[in-house]
Design a protein that fits this description.
Helix content is 47%, strand content 15%. The protein is α+β, with helices and mostly antiparallel strands and 81 residues long. The chain has a domain of 39 residues. It has a three-stranded antiparallel β-sheet with strand order 1-3-2.
Length: 81
């Protein structure tokens, strides 16, 4: 296959190049954090828009995973939550 040639305004190409360079610089500054697997009960309840009592009921019914971390009750975040 041969190379395809297209006509383009050099000024517009310079603008696009400048925008790409700015975007690249912004992406270099991004620091990503891993999403936590476990949240405190209150945080989880807020995350799913329910009361702590509802989440405790789910835990008792086996609908969500939980664990103790010292005195703190932690709830596992499901991918659908």
């Amino acid at each position: 296959m041969g190379e395809a040639l297209i006509a383009a305004d050099p000024g517009k190409l310079d603008t696009i190049l400048h925008q790409l360079e700015r975007l690249h610089k912004r992406l270099d500054r991004v620091e990503m954090e891993r999403k936590p697997e476990w949240l405190l009960l209150a945080e989880y309840a807020k995350h799913v828009g329910k009361t702590e009592r509802t989440v405790r009921n789910w835990i008792r019914a086996g609908e969500v995973d939980s664990k103790r971390d010292g005195k703190a009750l932690m709830v596992r975040i499901s991918p659908a939550a």
